[in-house]
Design a protein that fits this description.
- α1 runs antiparallel to α2 and α2 runs antiparallel to α4.
- The protein has a single domain, classed as hpI Integrase, Chain A.
- The protein is mainly alpha-helical.
- It has a three-stranded antiparallel β-sheet with strand order 1-2-3.
- The chain is elongated.
- The protein contains nine helices and three strands, in the order αααβββαααααα.
- Belongs to the 'phage' integrase family.
- Keywords: DNA recombination, DNA-binding.
- It holds the Pfam family Phage_integrase.
- This is Integrase.
- InterPro entries: DNA_brk_join_enz (IPR011010), Integrase-like_cat_sf (IPR013762), Integrase_catalytic (IPR002104), Tyrosine_recombinase_XerCD (IPR050090).
Length: about 180
């Protein structure tokens, strides 16, 4: 998992707008590598602040979160590049969308440039998205929906990534001690 600071360092390491948009969208929407690669311009719904994800895992369509920060950078990108169908085109001029391999290559390029020494993959951005939401007290059921999980057990995997102190849970004996103080 990457910390918020490491995510920011990774985004700051980007040397072009397209790559920064890709990394921001991976993290900001909690997307899988294939989902970000196959986004279409028409998948952006700025009125409802969501991204339409077609043929996600299990061949299911779903909606993902579109934050204001993500929308702002996507608008800047669109104004600069005016993509037609695919949001992120392949650089080899085939008129197709980027491949998962191309997304992975650019991710690892910026991990190196940002001097992040953790063993990470593109999927780490999705893990970080979910974990940061959990740390911000977002319901595991809402996160399940955002990630497009069909089974809550898949979402609960992210719970083990949290540090105990970040959960903000009071131990039952501590709660009893507080009752004793009130009753005294």
């Amino acid at each position: 998992m990457l910390t918020r600071e490491e995510i920011q360092t990774l985004l700051d390491a980007c040397d072009n707008l397209r790559d920064k948009c890709i990394l921001m969208t991976l993290y900001g929407a909690g997307l899988r590598i294939s989902e970000v690669a196959a986004l279409k311009v028409s998948d952006i719904d700025s009125n409802k602040m969501q991204l339409f994800i077609r043929n996600a895992k299990g061949s299911k369509d779903r909606y993902a979160l579109l934050s204001q920060a993500n929308l702002d950078i996507l608008r800047t990108y669109w104004k600069a590049y005016r993509p037609k169908e695919w949001l992120f085109y392949s650089r080899n001029n085939t008129g197709t969308h980027m491949t998962a391999r191309a997304v992975s290559n650019l991710f690892h390029k910026y991990v190196s440039k940002a001097k992040i020494t953790k063993n990470v993959t593109v999927h780490t951005m999705r893990h970080s998205f979910a974990t940061h939401l959990l740390e911000s007290d977002t319901s595991v059921f809402h996160i399940k929906q955002l990630l497009g999980h069909s089974d809550i057990a898949s979402t609960c995997f992210y719970l083990h990534l949290l540090k105990i102190e970040s959960l903000g849970v009071k131990s039952p004996p501590d709660q009893l001690a507080q009752l004793d103080k009130v009753n005294d």
